[in-house]
Design brief:
663 residues; Beta-Lactamase; Alpha-Beta Plaits; five-stranded antiparallel beta sheet
């Protein structure tokens, strides 16, 4: 368009009378006399011919300009210095749904909604006054038929001649318009409007794909941090809201085992199902506030099995605690996917603080630390950020760097938790649980360092020490009570111990050194480690079983439970995961038991018994739970109802009692 509007300008100069006479006089002067020479007839005819030709070129250029303007596919209008439409082409009329002739005399800014945007309106006025070269902005326009469209509006100055020539192309209205342009200083502006709705829609779709997780359809990490940054801007929390921000940062417990054993397809389906439950929790939390302006928490998948729920106008920690509780309850119900019944829980880090002075990085660091605390405290729980605890928090790097030396320095000890007979209430065995007495961070539970030990391989050295110490203590109890039935000791074994060490030789050597009978030793492996065992792991388990060592599956039911497959493994004990027991009735809470949970547990116990296996229930916390488990045939129980993990001397006292019933 710039070439069309500026092109005719040079030819216009050819028809200026003063210039023509002066130039011709100068060019034709040959005398030195000061008196001007009279033009000859030939020279006058020549000038007349040139003027006629110039006039023809100007007329042709003007006609070309008018035709191009009228037929252009780009919607355009010439606007005078007062902001009124001088002329408009057919494309603009079609775009706006208004006859082009009707547009003449209209306020141009109203047609494209410039006045509603302060910055656009100011820039538009500057272009009209000749103080700014161009305005380009995007506006959303409403068509008379009701549909909306996105338009890119461009306003550029026009030379005086071009504006007048374009205006003259509209009949009588054009003549008056041309006079209007000339009357206001001879200059106007060109308003062009392009429909960019399709481009905007494509951009919106691409942005949605870029900002959302393809598996769960939730906002992804990028969009989540955009929302966090926006919520922490002063304009956001000063104009409305509570001025506080809250975050529930959660990680699924046990998801990796499911993903590794059943494959990524099932893992993705589980993530999508979890996302649906989290979204439902967020929607219910938004409705519970009963505030018309309240917005439901944003649910996002940050990657892997990590999710976040962002509360942009938090009312306090109580609101966040309620949300975290609802999430835990929602995830307690098993998932039925592709014929598989599976359970996952979540550990949740909860952070709530003033938006002022908070940064996205600081918020996420606090949430990540709190999530780590929740996992370290036993998983399947939520933990609120504690500044004092954070002041002394440990880091994975610090622990990892001191793990191997700690084994050599003797910083580890063992606690024991009783395994109690459901029928007689007596201690039949104990599970050995390692503790790290860190000189800087205090006493650490296995959840805080076993994963690190497995990663760097120090689990082999640590596991050998745990096994030897536990067997030595079990033999000591046996010798102290020669007239009583001996108790067995159960020791957890990591998969890496089976692969990276000669576990069978280690066990045989330790049993020989301590004198502990093999039948008084039980080794616990997780379900994901045992199921699908082949090659070296299966050979090792079979050799240990042949020695008389018991093999137990820990946390049974959290993976892809296949009891029929167990008949081909040298397994003697199933330890039911605590998630099954939690569905049983709690004392004093008036909570109705879930019949389905009892049916599932009873069926598992009966089938295990038919396979010659004994069953231990984990996380038994109330007498009501213990009674129900006893009634459906569970063999032993383990949990705080009987005892927390305690030292060896305390176990000796418990063994001396008639029964174990400690809350």
């Amino acid at each position: 368009m710039s070439g069309t509007s500026e092109g005719p300008a040079p030819s216009v100069d050819l028809i200026r009378p003063a210039d023509t006479e002066s130039n011709s006089g100068t060019s034709s002067t040959s005398s030195t006399s000061s008196m001007p020479s009279m033009p000859s007839v030939a020279s006058v005819a020549s000038v007349t011919s040139m003027a006629s030709m110039a006039s023809s070129h100007v007329a042709a250029g003007t006609a070309l300009l008018r035709g191009a303007f009228a037929a252009a596919p780009l919607a355009m209008a010439v606007v005078d210095r007062e902001g009124l439409v001088v002329t408009a082409n057919e494309s603009l009329g079609a775009l706006l749904g208004i006859d082009p002739e009707v547009l003449v005399g209209k306020v141009a800014a109203d047609l494209v909604d410039l006045a509603s945007d302060t910055r656009a309106w100011h820039a538009y006025r500057e272009v009209l006054r000749g103080r700014q070269a161009r305005l380009r902005c995007t506006r959303r326009l409403k068509h008379p038929d009701g549909h909306s469209l996105w338009a890119q509006v461009t306003v550029t100055p026009l030379p005086a001649e071009t504006a007048a020539e374009a205006a003259e192309g509209s009949g009588s209205e054009g003549s008056r318009a041309s006079e209007g342009v000339q009357g206001y200083g001879g200059r106007g502006v060109l308003l062009s409007v392009a429909d960019i709705s399709a481009r905007r829609e494509l951009q919106a779709r691409l942005r949605h794909l870029q900002m959302h997780d393809p598996v769960t359809r939730l906002p992804n990490r990028t969009l989540f941090f955009e929302r966090v940054s926006a919520a922490l801007e002063a304009e956001s929390y000063e104009q409305s809201g509570t001025g506080r921000i809250g975050l529930c940062y959660l990680d699924l417990d046990g998801f990796k085992a499911i993903n590794d054993t059943l494959g990524h397809r099932v893992g993705d389906r589980l993530l999508a199902a979890v996302a649906e439950r989290l979204t439902r929790c967020a929607e219910e939390a938004g409705l519970a506030r009963r505030n018309p302006g309240a917005v439901a928490p944003l649910v996002a998948r940050l990657g892997g099995d990590e999710f976040a729920l962002l509360i942009e106008d938090s009312t306090g920690t109580d609101q966040l605690a309620d949300l975290a509780e609802s999430v835990l309850k929602a995830l307690q119900l098993p998932f039925d996917l592709a014929g598989q019944r599976m359970s996952v829980s979540a550990s949740i880090g909860v952070v709530e603080r003033h938006a002022a002075g908070t940064t996205p990085t600081g918020l996420m660091q606090a949430a990540d630390t709190t999530l780590y605390w929740a996992k370290a405290d036993g998983k399947s729980r939520w933990t609120l950020f504690d500044p004092e605890r954070n002041a002394h928090r440990m880091t994975r790097q610090a622990l990892s760097s001191t793990l191997r030396p700690a084994i050599e320095r003797g910083e580890f000890t063992l606690d024991y938790q009783p395994l109690v007979g459901m029928a007689d209430g007596r201690v039949h065995g104990v599970e050995a649980l390692v503790r790290w007495h860190h000189p800087q961070f205090g006493t650490l539970t296995p959840n805080r360092f076993i994963g690190l030990a497995e990663e760097d391989g120090s689990i082999v050295q640590l596991g050998r020490w745990v096994l030897a110490t536990a067997c030595r203590q079990a033999r000591r109890w046996q010798l102290e009570r020669p007239d009583k039935p001996p108790i067995f000791v159960s020791v957890n074994v990591a998969v890496r111990q089976v692969w990276d060490s000669d576990l069978v030789a280690d066990v045989a050597e330790i049993l020989a050194e301590t004198g502990l009978p093999a039948e008084l030793l039980q080794l616990e492996l997780t379900e994901s480690a045992v199921m699908g065992s082949a090659g070296r792991p299966l050979q090792a388990l079979q050799a240990l079983s042949d020695m008389g060592v018991g093999i137990a599956i820990d946390d049974f039911g959290t993976g892809y439970s296949n009891l029929a497959y167990l008949s081909r493994l040298p397994v003697s004990v199933l330890k039911l995961d605590g998630s099954f027991v939690r569905g049983f009735q709690y004392e004093g809470e008036g909570v109705a038991p879930n019949p389905a949970d009892e049916i599932v547990v009873e069926a598992m116990i009966q089938l295990a018994h038919r396979l010659g296996l004994t069953v231990t229930a984990e996380c038994v916390e109330t007498a009501a739970q213990a009674e129900r488990l006893r009634r459906i045939g569970c063999d032993t129980g383990q949990g705080w109802l009987y005892s927390r993990p305690v030292g060896a001397d305390r176990i000796s006292l418990l063994m001396g009692g008639s029964s174990c019933r400690q809350g």
